[in-house]
Amino acid sequence: MDLPQLQPPERLLCGPGPTNVDPAVLDAMRQPMLGHLDPDLHDILLDVVAMLRRVYRMPDGLVLPLHCTGTAGMEAGIANLVEPGDTVIVAQCGFFGRRISEIARRHGAEVVAVEADWGECVSNDALLEALDRHPGARMVAVVHAETSTGVEHALAELGAALRDRDVLLMADCVTSLAGVPLDVGAWGVDFAYACTQKCLAAPPGMSPVAVSERALQRLLARRTPVPFSFDLLLLEKYWIERPVTYHHTAPILGIYALHEALRSVLAEGLEARWQRHADAAQHLQAAVESRGLELLADADHRLAPLTAVRVPAGLDGKSVQTRMLREHGIEIGGGLGPDAPAMWRIGLMGRNASIETADQVLAALDAVLAEEAAPALAG
Ligand SMILES: Cc1ncc(COP(=O)(O)O)c(C=O)c1O
How far apart are CA 345 and CA 8, in angstroms? Predict the structure, then answer.
């Protein structure tokens, strides 16, 4: 029997994530495999935690990567810090804000959703008003970088406004970590979660989290137990406390990948990396607008790593996406969720955050649109 070889095609991944993995990160995954209880691995774990602290800018509290998706990182925050009957205020202006609400409800929370339209940002004033109406709320949750719309939340300002309030701030930093300015410690974020496949340019499968001292106190005072797999205090006993206590068999090669990804972020420098993402996005967004196309996000809240472009009336957005992939080897995204407006989502993340990559996407888009727009115009 002829067994097929694994031969995935080359792609330039410029959608909402995953992005292309850095070659050095792939090389790290070919390093010798260690067992999860090997003391030499345990030194590597501590190195990962130390680098992650610097990338999150979180000097205290607990920082570690969970072995799970970004969604499960979101669920871990809710599972650890929310108890049945707690009120949670959620900013909803896209797919991932709604997902936070859905997960919080499934954990028994009373969700107060504060909404804005696709492309807009929920204002901090609206969140603070909701908190005034629900002064007993236990958590305010926002998506720092809403990948479904290309909108960035003013997280630093929200953290400052909540500093003296007895409420935790949870932030989805899946598309912001290592791509846009983020200072979890100074901004007073109590639970931040991210993932590896976006601006860190590593493969999917891990969710780095940062937990404040205040959130750890909340965790210690819980009345109900945390699901075993998400229990941050048990995970700390493996990642940080020595001697280690077994919790589960860690994905060793994914940890090597994250180690190399964090090393390359810090070698480049956080500010330089944020600037590179900003420069690439500015170039892309100006070029898109100069072609008469409309950006979805309000000008005041545009995100660098992800640009959402409205599909012009009369064009088949999905067909453009398919031709970009099949004819040019470039992946871009479409709208996420049944009620999303027609859009293309172009991601310039990690090593793809460059003017050269932006130009490559634009050239392919121009070529496809020249053919796709002609029948639409003729019709
Ligand atoms: C803002 C945001 N939050 C959460 C997630 C969920 O991450 P995952 O797909 O790894 O579960 C994503 C994924 O794209 C995202 O963009």
Answer: 23
Residue 378 has pLDDT above 90, yes or no: no
Write down the pTM of the prediction: 0.97
Report d(CA 353, CA 280) in Å as an integer: 6
As given in the structure block, the two tokens for residue 126 are: 């609206």
- Whether 204 lines ligand 1, by a CB cut-off of 6 Å, is yes
Packing angle of the helix pair 213-220, 232-239 (nearest 10 deg): 120
pLDDT value of residue 1: 80
What stretches of the chain adopt beta strand conformation (E)? 12-13, 62-66, 87-92, 110-115, 139-143, 145-146, 151-152, 168-172, 191-193, 207-211, 306-310, 330-331, 343-347
Q: From the CB of 98, is ligand 1 less than 6 Å away?
A: no
Joined tokens for residue 312: 């012009």
Q: At what angle do helices 124-133 and 155-162 cross, to 10 degrees?
A: 30
The finding on whether 96 has its CB within 6 A of some atom of ligand 1 is yes
15: left (phi over 0), alpha (psi -120 to 50) or beta: beta
* Residue pointed to by tokens 């871990």: 76
Give mean pLDDT, residues 315-332: 98
Judged on CB neighbours under 10 Å (0-12, 13-18, 19+), 58 is buried
